[in-house]
Amino acid sequence: DLHAVHERITLALENQHQEIQIMISQERIQIPQAQNNTFYAQ
């Protein structure tokens, strides 16, 4: 059933998008910490 396939693809893309958003937000948290660490190291 084409409609069911389309729904499954849409759900998969939404899940992937959420995972990417989480990864991006985690990286944004880690970057300032890394900059602080290099600042303290000097």
Word description of this protein:
By secondary structure, this protein is mostly helical. Helix content is 95%, strand content 0%. It is built from one helix and no strands. The protein has one helix at 2-41. The protein is rod-shaped. The relative contact order is 0.08.
Index terms:
single chain; mainly alpha; 42 residues
Concise overview:
Helix content is 95%, strand content 0%.
Helix segment tally: 1
> Could you say which overall geometry the principal axes of the C-alpha atoms support?
rod-shaped
Strands, total number: 0
Mean pLDDT: 81
Strand content: under 5%
Low-confidence stretches: none
Largest sheet: none
Organism: Ambispora gerdemannii
Protein name: 6203_t:CDS:1
Helix and strand arrangement:
Blueprint: H1 2-41
